Amino acid sequence: MRSIIAARRLPPKELSMWQKTTSMFQKHTLPTLIGTALSHLTLQGFIPEDFIEHSIQWEQLPYSVDDCLDFGFTWTHMLQMNFKPHHFKSLEWRHFTQLQLDADAMMKTCLSIHDLVALKLTPQQLHKLKWSWAHITTIGGTADNIKISPQDRAIYFGRTTQETSTCASVSTGSVPKFSF
């Protein structure tokens, strides 16, 4: 397989006039092969970098996420192929762990709080993906637009600034101000 890939990447040898003419009618470039089984593309020597070289976007791929990962796509490839926040909906939890995604990686797609909420991840999953309350507020999250109980917020994301100031005022003996 490596020799096929290496041979395909060598500069083309000089073709005769007849070979040049017949090659114009053959359409076996990667963009025309989209939809062909990835195992067939592998046998022809294609690799994920070829998709990037041909400017093929992630949303143009008709393959399942599992097939793409088995083919060799990584998170870096996916970003280079213009992976967008709404594409996260096609990922299952095992894909998040297999791609070793975390909050910083997810934020590279310009994820908004609405995109994050649409994924319906549990507080435990968000915590495993290293989401902090600072990350959540950076993308527009508030206690009102992300439905996480105050207990889960305290357990998985630490105390927010408001909660910290309330706790500090309790410890000093002053009357805390509660805002809802």
Verbal overview:
By secondary structure, the protein is mainly alpha-helical. The chain folds into 2 domains: 1-83, no CATH class; 92-173, no CATH class. Helix content is 52%, strand content 0%. It is built from 14 helices and no strands. It has helices spanning 2-9, 17-24, 30-33, 38-43, 48-53, 65-71, 75-80, 93-98, 103-107, 113-118, 123-128, 133-138, 150-157, 161-171. The longest helix is centred in the C-terminal third of the chain and has 11 residues, at 161-171. The protein is elongated, with a radius of gyration of 24 Å.
Q: Which properties best describe this structure?
A:
180 residues, mainly alpha, 2 domains, 14 helices, 0% strand
Give a nutshell description of this structure.
It contains 14 helices and no strands. With 180 residues, it is mainly alpha-helical. It folds into two domains: 1-83, no CATH class; 92-173, no CATH class.
Q: How many runs of DSSP E, i.e. beta strands?
A: 0
Task: Name the average pLDDT.
Answer: 82
Shape: elongated
H and E order: HHHHHHHHHHHHHH
Structural class: mainly alpha
Number of helices: 14
Question: Can you summarize the main beta sheet?
Answer: none
Relative strand content: under 5%
Estimated radius of gyration: 24 Å
Helix content range of the residues, please? 40-55%
Distance between the termini: 63 Å
The overall number of domains is: 2
**Which ranges are low-confidence, i.e. pLDDT below 50, for 5 or more consecutive residues?**
161-180
What layout of secondary structure does this protein have?
Layout lengths: L1 H8 L7 H8 L5 H4 L4 H6 L4 H6 L11 H7 L3 H6 L12 H6 L4 H5 L5 H6 L4 H6 L4 H6 L11 H8 L3 H11 L9
